Amino acid sequence: MFKSFQAKLTAGLIGLVAASLVVSFVAVSLATRANVAATTANELRTAAGVFEQLLAVRGNQLRNSVAVLADDFGFREAVASADAATIRSALLNTSSRIEADTGLVLTTSGDIRASIDTGLAEGIAFPHADLLDRAAEEGSAAAIVTLDGDSYQLVVAPVRAPLRIGWIALGFRLDDELLGSLATLTGAEISIASEQEIIGSSLDRMTRAALAERLVGGLDADTGVRNLQLDTAEFLTLQVMLDQVAGPELHAILQLSLTAALASYRELEIQLLAIAGFALFLALLVALFIASGVTQPVRELVARAQKIARGDYSVSLSLNRNDEIGQLNEAFNAMQEGIAEREERIVFQAHHDDLTRLPNRVLAQDRLRQAITRAERTGRPAALVMLDLDRFKEINDALGHQLGDEVLQAVSDRLLDAVRGVDTVARLGGDEFMVVLEDVEPEAAMAKAEDVVEALRRPMLIGESNLHVIASAGVVLIPDHGRDPEQLMRRADIAMYDAKQSHNATLLYRSGRDESHLMRLRLIGDLRVAATRGQFRMFYQPKLDLRRNEITQAEALIRWDHPEHGFMPPDQFITLAEQSGNIGVVTNWVLRAALQQLRHWLDDGLDLSVSINISAMDLEDASLPERVTELLQEFDVSAERLVLEVTESAVMRDAESAIRMLDKLNAAGIQLSIDDFGTGYSSLAQLKRLPVHELKIDKSFVMQLDADSEDAIIVRSTIELAHNMGLSVIAEGVENEAARQLLSDYGCDHAQGYLIAKPLPAQKFAEWLHDSTYQVAMRKEAE
Predict the structure, then answer these.
(1) Would you give the end-to-end CA distance of the chain in angstroms?
(2) Mean pLDDT for the stretch of residues 278-292
(3) What is the DSSP secondary structure assignment for residue 781, as one 8-state letter?
(4) How confident is the model at residue 283 (pLDDT cuts 50, 70, 90)?
(5) What does the alpha-carbon distance between residue 134 and residue 715 come to, in Å, rounded to a whole number?
(6) Distance of alpha carbon 299 from alpha carbon 371, whole angstroms
């Protein structure tokens, strides 16, 4: 047939090219399918790793949030005092911030005290007691649990103060919405299944139904990548058993569509057939060139896929082509970059704060642990500085949370600029920051802490405003104050709060403050039940009408007869009552006891009034006027016989709100007095607006009163000012006859102090009235 060599050569070349093309086409097709299957399998394994890391990250996020909330002083006080409203508010705020789906607070015995977004009723036992046992041993415990028919990724940790006073748990629900989000992050479809049941899935309805049918016989024991035909599509499936499951065994089933992955290669196969047909008319070199041009990139892509499978993302493959091979190469590179970025982001987010990019609590504790180790190894001390911004909530309320975030970012920049490169700056949450100072002597540590606080004081341009940020700092020395990170952080916290309360910028931790902190917590618990256990006592100090030399009024002063600490004056526990939310209980007890005693005096024919101190927090209680009115009616006492004393600083704390409350009390006929006048920050314009009847000059101006002293000028001016405004004046702290005479000469209306009488119990007060040389106002007729 082919007689000539040329024909034979041509036929042979064409046959060789044809055979080569056929072999190449088959090889490319098989290699492509194998490559796509291998790549898809690698993507599936990578997706499984990313999925497990995401679960771990979310678990760490839960652990961090649980740890932050469990360490929060206000939250611990709420748990210790069983303040359900504060507990629920804290749970809701924390759950909202991290987008958790459920939150629980348990009693020490494991009963549910507060619950959000679950069907579990308060008072019942937590159904996974073994999780609490793990948390008690390990500090916290994470597990996938079933609560009221739903599955959750849950973290449980104890709340300590420092002994365990309860449990806190936060969790994410493993539902379709969550799995859809995880599927977006991993790039693979995800289903959560138990034996013969799909609990949640990111699959569409038809594919999910097909998968459910395949589970009728139970979960497959094979945990490797396998092919699975669902409906009309072929999938690669990887089954991962979930760790730390409390309850029935759960598996995560990850799927990638092999059908969809191969679809993009169909056009490539058609083009290869066209090339094969055209190549039959070309020379062998052209055929070999085409074959080489097709197979070489595939081999390079396979090699790159193998490196990706081993976790090597360092080198990108550059194929300068515009065909499908080039597109596949770009897709490979994009996938490689995407996986690398996601892994880097996951690792970064697990150890850094999203807003400030500073190390978070987890990384900060690790850095602190390393600093402790270095200090012990080298003998060079270190220090830990805990910082908290004062009045940051007011900045947020005034400027909004967006500008508040800018303030936090500016603070982080200032902190980084103020320390050395070897030091660590971290944000623990909210407006709380931590600085670990390496290789620093105690004096230098305190100086550096003061420099840091001073750096924050410099004006910050936020938006269009120059803001002055004031911070309080607590300092602990390593290893002088401890070698345990949690202990050092707790002690730095204590020093910081001591600095805040004493209005110091920085304060070094003082030994023994742990015990004081614990005693405060115990006192808060005791304070909650002091009224019901009859531990409160009422004392009365008379007030003298200087014009008539007559006792017309008494101030009611509470004392706490503590079974362990004995008699405690109000300055030792009123602040605790305000901080723990128990001030309302104390005020109610004082009002009732004082009005009941006043009723007895009136029945005995005495024409007296009684004054009672109320706190700044009482002024924020909208129910105060109603409660006072009800008690006046209960004891049949006219409103003008009750004087409520409020300090000048309490009124100035929120002047507008305080004025509204004072207006309501004044409208009810109650007499109002400004206590400790002269020590606050009120202006004459503000004083003019206050609906008060009396000014009480602070004892600091009266105790050393002398006609030639500066105090005399202040007292005389205050009396004249008050009288010009139609107010009466009472001076407290009168301890000698000379001061009383001066006050009388200045026209002061009333005096109170040890010269007249010290505070006395009701019975002793009655005896003093009977034996006193002062006149006592008597009623002319019964009310």
Answers:
(1) 141
(2) 56
(3) S
(4) low
(5) 66
(6) 50
Are 479 and 376 in contact, with CB atoms under 8 Å apart?
yes
Cβ atoms of residues 526 and 752 within 8 Å: no
- Lowest mean pLDDT: which of 65-74, 213-222, 368-377? 213-222
Beta bridge partners of residue 143, listed in sequence order? 154
CA distance 415 to 458: 12
Q: Please, which residues bridge with residue 554 across strands?
A: 542, 610
User: How far apart are the C-alpha atoms of 99 and 167, rounded to whole Å?
Assistant: 20
* 418: Cβ contacts below 8 Å, ≥ 6 apart: 448, 451, 452, 455
pLDDT band of residue 781 (cuts 50, 70, 90) is: low
Q: What are the structure tokens assigned to 659, written together?
A: 């004025």
Tell me if the bond preceding 485 is cis, omega within 30° of 0: no
CA-wise closest residue to 71 among 168, 155, 2, 189: 168
In whole angstroms, give the CA distance from residue 306 to residue 558: 79
Peptide bond into 479 cis (omega under 30): yes
Phi, psi of 90 (to 5 degrees): -65, -40
Q: How many CB atoms lie within 10 A of CB 711?
A: 19
The span from the CA of 214 to the CA of 237, in Å, is: 12
Q: What are phi and psi of 78, to 5 degrees?
A: -65, -40
**Cα of 594 vs its chain's centroid, Å:** 41
- 579 by Cβ neighbours in 10 Å (0-12 / 13-18 / 19+) ranks as middle
Report the pLDDT value the prediction gives residue 782, as an integer from 0 to 100: 46
Beta pairing class for 141-147 and 150-160: antiparallel
- Quote the tokens at residue 629: 């009115």
Reduced DSSP (H G I as helix, E B as strand, rest coil) percent helix, strand, coil of the chain, to 5: 50, 20, 25
* pLDDT, position 200: 81
Q: Which residues contact 782 (CB under 8 A, 6 or more apart)?
A: none
Among 99-113, 160-174, 327-341, 537-551, whose mean pLDDT is lowest? 327-341
489-544 tens-digit pLDDT: 888 888 888 888 777 888 888 876 655 555 566 666 677 777 778 878 899 999 99
Percentage of the chain modeled with pLDDT above 90: 16
654: Cβ–Cβ under 8 A, 6 or more apart, which residues?
616, 619, 620
Query: Mind listing the pLDDT tens digit for each residue in 98-155?
Result: 888 888 999 988 888 888 876 778 888 888 888 888 888 888 888 888 777 778 888 9
pLDDT in tens, 235-264: 888 888 776 656 667 788 888 888 777 777
Pairing of strands 189-194, 251-257: antiparallel
Task: Say how far apart CA 730 and CA 723 lie, in whole Å.
Answer: 11
Phi, psi (5° rounding) for residue 264? -70, -15
Q: Which two tokens stand for residue 766?
A: 């009655």
Token pair recorded at residue 516: 């004081």
Cα angle: 450, vertex 455, 459; to 5 degrees:
140
Strand (E) or helix (H) holding 66: helix 5-71
The model carries a pTM of: 0.45
Q: What whole-number distance in Å separates Cα of residue 362 and Cα of residue 690? A: 51
Instruction: Output the six-digit token pair for 756.
Output: 């007249």
Residue-wise DSSP of 547-600:
TTTEEEEEEEEEEEEETTTEEE-GGGTHHHHHHHT-HHHHHHHHHHHHHHHHHH
